[in-house]
Design brief:
The structure is a single chain. The chain has 13 helices and 10 strands. The chain is of the alpha/beta class and 420 residues long. The strands form 2 sheets. Strands 4-3-5-2-8-9-1-10 form an 8-stranded mixed sheet, sandwiched between helices. A hairpin with a 2-residue loop joins β6 (279-280) and β7 (283-284). The radius of gyration is 32 Å and the shape is globular.
Length: 420
């Protein structure tokens, strides 16, 4: 005997479903016959939208990839012909270096500037341009100066290579202080010949590196007629040093900085000690007066340089080379300080340098909020200047590089066939 399920129970509903010719009550209809729920329908719609967007962007993404590959191929060729031509010219000019060192370094400086101009052109034609704010540093381009720059990414160096191209002979007579890792890049051999200094980071190397820097300045700065030095006092990229800097600030009751890190004093102290003319009572000491009159006035300016990227998204060297990021305007703010206003003793210099980076923090905070740097004191508006590169000049230096590369190739080929 089969038990009859009690009406209203799930068993009764199942039995009713099995019975032929019987229809289920609407509330118990299987989910398969119900309209899709709202979340499921929304997910399906979103998936279709994403697929449509992806299909629409496919040609654009394909073009970006092709363009990046073409740019990379050009950079490789550009590096090969330009760097090898530079090395060949330097080797051939070695007799001139022995006979007239000043003229040799003058010629080398021009070739160095052209090489940096080629790097600047890579970003220029990708739409990465520079807007300048603050003091006009062209006014001090013939004097000796130190640039103190905040450091966010490898693109900072490329940005400076671009925005200093129209500042007279600054690039030709410039010395860079950069991380030792750059020594092993394709540009490392050029920087070694030019006389740039590669500094190794870390407490274990700090004292030794400062001694090496002092010796390097004594041996290369004056003898090669250098005028400007580019220094990143933070000692590393913002993203790598921020937590350490903030912990140090908290421990020592110093300002908490977000957009920059607290600077390190060592390299700045060495540079000022080595290059600032010794003064007594506001004038050069008697022993230095004749030397300064005939050779150099010594270091005269410190240029506080602040680099800002839209939305705080810095450009790295890969982006600069491949050009896959949309055109971007990088903003650079300058503030010039006479060296006489800068304390040279260690404690005073440390406080002065901290104050500069506190000001950088304020400048960057204002920029990220408004898209512009604040006006100088006593002014209602901040004035910006668009930095431009001459397309004709870029064409000429690139043509010179490739023609030089072809010339040296034919010369080497000739001697190879003569010998073998």
């Amino acid at each position: 005997m089969t038990a009859t399920p009690r009406p209203g129970t799930p068993a009764a509903a199942a039995a009713q479903h099995r019975a032929p010719g019987r229809r289920l009550p609407a509330p118990l209809a299987p989910a398969l016959h119900r309209p899709p729920s709202a979340p499921a329908e929304k997910d399906r719609t979103d998936a279709h939208v994403r697929m449509a967007v992806t299909l629409e962007e496919a040609p654009w993404l394909g073009w970006i990839l092709v363009k990046a590959l073409l740019r990379f191929a050009f950079m490789v060729a550009n590096n090969l012909v330009a760097l090898l031509s530079y090395l060949c010219y330097v080797i051939v000019l070695q007799p001139l270096r022995l006979l007239d060192s000043k003229r040799f370094w003058y010629i080398e400086g021009f070739m160095y500037k052209w090489l940096l101009g080629m790097v600047a052109s890579w970003g220029w034609y990708a739409g990465y341009t520079v807007m300048e704010w603050g003091d006009d540093i062209k006014a001090v381009s013939k004097d000796e100066a130190v640039m103190l720059v905040n450091h966010q990414a490898t693109g900072d160096v490329c940005t400076l290579m671009m925005c200093l191209q129209d500042k007279g002979l600054v690039v030709a007579q410039m010395m860079w202080l950069m991380d030792h890792i750059f020594k092993y890049t394709n540009f490392g051999i050029v920087s070694l010949i030019h006389g740039d200094f590669f500094i190794r980071q870390g407490k274990s190397h700090r004292d030794q590196q400062l001694l090496l820097l002092k010796k390097h300045l004594e041996n290369n700065y004056r003898s090669r007629d250098r005028k400007w030095i580019v220094l990143f006092p933070e000692g590393g990229f913002l993203r790598k040093r921020r937590e350490t800097s903030q912990a140090f600030a908290k421990k020592n009751n110093l300002p908490f900085l977000t957009h920059v890190t607290l600077p390190r004093i060592g390299a700045t102290n060495i540079i000022l000690s080595a290059l600032v003319a010794r003064q007594e009572n506001g004038s050069p000491s008697e022993g230095d007066a004749k030397e300064l009159e005939s050779k150099s006035k010594g270091l005269q300016w410190i240029i506080d340089t602040t680099i800002a990227y839209p939305k705080a998204e810095p450009i790295d060297i890969q982006t600069w080379i491949l050009g896959y990021r949309k055109p971007t305007v990088t903003h650079v703010h300058y503030r010039i300080f006479p060296i006489k206003d800068v304390p040279l003793e260690t404690d005073g210099l440390s406080d002065w340098l901290y104050q500069r980076f506190i000001e950088k923090e304020e400048l960057l905070s204002h920029f990220y909020e408004t898209g512009a740097f604040p006006p100088p004191k006593g002014h209602k508006e901040a004035v910006s200047r668009e930095m431009t590169l001459s397309n004709m000049w870029i064409f000429l230096i690139q043509s010179f590089a490739f023609l030089s590369g072809y010339m040296w190739y034919k010369i080497i080929q000739y001697f190879y066939h003569c010998l073998f």
